[in-house]
Each structure stands twice: as C-alpha cells, then as structure tokens.
C-alpha cells in the first residue's frame, strides 16, 4: 500500500507517458484493449479517471484491472470497476475515451480539472483505487504507468498484484461494503467460494473428473490456490488443471482457452481428456467459461453459456419452488441474440420463465438482470452470472421453512447464493456452481447435453470499409442502417426452416459479425453465407 500524497503533477505524469501520434483510443465494450506497446499513455490517463470517479462516489474504492482477456499475448488493456464491483457506467466510459485522446499533457490537466468542475468533484477529497493485473508480460510496465497517474492524482493505492478479473471485482465490492460481501483478501475469496461450494454440495459427490483448461493465464495459479479450500477429492470434485503455464507469457490463449474452444468448436489440442470426460475452458482473465466433452465416437460437444444458463435457471427455479418461495420470487433469464433458438425456446416453453434479450456486452445483460428477483444471465460465449435483488435476498434470509424438505432446499439455495459471484461473471465460481448442480442431479456432461438439442448455427466475420455504418435496433436483431439491408436478410431467412440470422458491428474488432441458425447444418451454413454476402455488398458501398 502506498500513501495518499500526490508526488509530481498531472502534467508531469502525462509527460512521462506521452501519447503516440495518430492513434485514436476507445473505451470499448470492456475497456481499452489494443497492442500493449501503445497503451502507456492510456494507462496513466485512465488512472486519473479512476481517481476522479472515486472522488465522485465519496472516496469509495474503484478498481482497475490490467488485462486483455482472450486477446493474443502481445495485447493488453484496462477496465475500470465501479464501487459495487460492476462495470464502469457508460457516461464515464465516454470521459475515459476523451481523456485518452487528449493531444498534450496540458490538455490532460485541463480536462481533468474540467471533469472535476462539471461533476462537482472536490479534488482535495480522498480517492482510492485498487489494482490488479493478469499474467501478460507487459502488465508490470503498464501498471507502473497507472501508478504514476494515481500518484499524480493523489489517490490511495491498493495493489493486489496478479488476480483474475472477477477476483478484482470481488475485492472492490468487499472493500466498499465493510466485509458484508466477504473479506477483501485472496484468502477471503477462496474461503468464501470454497466454503460455499462445500455447503452447496451437501455431501453429494460430482461424477467423474473436471479438466480445466486455464488458457495459460492467471486463472491457472488462482484455481490451484482455490483447490486447497475445496473438499478433498475423495469427498468432492477431482479437478485436473491443464494449460497453466504462466511462466511463458507467449502461450497465453494460444490454441487453448474459452475463445479458442467456442470459436473453433473443438477441444484444445493439448487436452488429454478421455471419452465423456467433463472439460471446461477459461479465458485469459477467467471471467468466462465454456464446458465441453468428446463422446465415445470422439464427437465434440460444446456446452456453452446458453447451456449454463438453462442448467442454472432450472436448478435455482426448482430450489425456489421446493423451498416454498415460488409465490414470492420470480426467476428470469437474460440472453443476447447469439443465444441458440433452442435455448430460448427451452427457457420459455419448458421452464416457463421470462426471457429478455439485450445487446451484446456484459454490462447490458447485468443491468437487465438487476431488474429481476433472480436474474440468470449468460452470453453464449460464457460470460455470465446470477443477480439476486436486495428484496429477494431479504425474503430468503427471513423465510421460515415449513418442512424438512423445504429446509433442505432453502439451505442449498442459500449456499448457491454464496457460491455465485454476483458482482460479475466469474469462470471459477460459475464452474463450481455447474459442478454442484450436476452433482445434485447425478449427471455427467452427456445428461446435461440431453436436455435439448441446439439448432445448428454458424458465425461469420465480414470485413467492411466502415463497420460503424452498420446500426442495429431491437437488441441487435434488426439492422436499421444501411437502409434496406434488413429486408434482404429477411428474404433469405424466410427460405430456411427454423431460420434466424442477424448482423452487427463488433465492439472489439474491426468487422461485422453475422450469425445464422437453421434446422440443419447445411441450412445454417447456407444462410450465414448468404447474409454475409449481403453485408459485404452493403459494406462496399
Ligand atoms: C467483450 C465483452 C463480452 C462480449 C464481447 C463481444 C465484457 C466483459 N466482455 O468481450 O461481453 O460478448 O465483447 O465482442 O463485457 P464483439 O463485439 O467483438 O462481438
Ligand atoms: Mg475475459
């Protein structure tokens, strides 16, 4: 921990880390993210924004996570975390973008003072910022740039070194809630989630083993640590860790990790798992997880975020009902347009739950879920968690079960609440929750897969002149610009049985993404190709 006194001025800090010429930065879907060698100035300036944000919220701790998630090893980035452990509010994203693009150190200072003035921020009031980073080689250098900015802004600093992104979110929430969410230490995190896992299992033992691919990122060493707080494998879950080489930073996310598995629809080549062995893959900062297995015929099966959402919603829904709370607590599920049509159908028609659809990006889903009693949200790519409203938590805490059966369900429900990192999607906590549910159902991955059949689908990437000309509405399901393009897409969708397709500009890459599904593999592929052609033609204009 370092002191709260400013050393050096804002101008000096900005001078130490000048902005490269001609680069335009943007606080994107999940923070700034680009090649690490052009991020120094962004880090220092983002630190100033974090300090201002902390002052704006009365000196509460604000988080800064240095990571580029599933991006290649040479990239890096930074995301800011709000006081309750959620993602930075959109208004402040815009301030961060503007600050990052200021041309000179003097302009940085001027903007710093302007933000303070316009937001009624007293620059002498305390500012507190908590830091962590993933295992990228550039992380140490970039962190030094952050610290220069924080010192210049006179912020108190707490540095946790290496953490997963969700661990940092956890620390922020703990620090600002006087321990109500947990103890703000790494050990506190392991004790909380390890303890809740044991309680939620209630003596049940998961079948088989779980092989966890850690993408050669920070999730590896952290999972190894967490395992020490889980029940011994003879009584609980046997976890086999693979791809945990953080000594070789160039191996990060290469031929492994959640993004590799989801995009390529295959297991990492390094995986040594046998037939029907349950596997999951984390991404580089462990805020995302997908499951998969190979069957007896070596056929690969993916159990993605949609599957986790349906499994979790089924289980929590059952617990609410069997606890006797169904009249008081309603569950809902939040998805994006990428959710497989079969998953949406399953939630609506089998589980009879409300489904909402939001644009892509954790912050939109999280926000929507906050409006529900219990909001289960997952993106197909594996980002997600469960959010419990304050009233729901009160209802559950105060509820007196009327039978031993109700008590059993209620105790399991309470343990699951503790097991879920509701500050943000957490690959480690999500995986433990999945394992608890499978153990209760006495299921392996095959049974889980058997709950419904995914519609065949295809995701394509189209490079266009300017992706910003593609504007969507209705949670990205309709293209409103360029005009007339949606009509052409609709005409193709009509021709395909169970056809559905949409196109949207990526928030993280310079491309337009096309998604299509249909009754058969051939129909889905064909539809995706046709829609991609339409987008390509429109984007060439
Ligand atoms: C980011 C988002 C993720 C989203 C993805 C979409 C967070 C923490 N991460 O990784 O939620 O699914 O972007 O990428 O919000 P795309 O816009 O390139 O398709
Ligand atoms: Mg990530």
TrEMBL record:
UniProt domain Alpha-D-phosphohexomutase alpha/beta/alpha: residue ranges: 63-95, 105-179
Reactions mediated catalytically: N-acetyl-alpha-D-glucosamine 1-phosphate = N-acetyl-D-glucosamine 6-phosphate
InterPro entries xref list: A-D-PHexomutase_a/b/a-I (IPR005844), A-D-PHexomutase_a/b/a-I/II/III (IPR016055), A-D-PHexomutase_C (IPR005843), A-D-PHexomutase_C_sf (IPR036900), A-D-PHexomutase_CS (IPR016066), AMG1_II (IPR049023), AMG1_III (IPR049022), PAGM (IPR016657)
Protein name: Phosphoacetylglucosamine mutase
Cited Gene3D superfamilies: Alpha-D-Glucose-1,6-Bisphosphate, subunit A, domain 3 (3.40.120.10), Alpha-D-phosphohexomutase, C-terminal domain (3.30.310.50)
SUPFAM superfamilies (alphabetical): Phosphoglucomutase, C-terminal domain (SSF55957), Phosphoglucomutase, first 3 domains (SSF53738)
CDD domains: PGM3 (cd03086)
Top-level class of the enzyme under EC nomenclature: isomerase
Stated family: Belongs to the phosphohexose mutase family.
UniProt xrefs under PANTHER family: PHOSPHOACETYLGLUCOSAMINE MUTASE
Positions contributing to Mg(2+) binding: 69, 283, 285, 287
Entry's EC annotation: 5.4.2.3
Cofactors that this protein relies on: Mg(2+)
GO MF annotation list: magnesium ion binding; phosphoacetylglucosamine mutase activity
Co-factor binding comment: Binds 1 Mg(2+) ion per subunit.
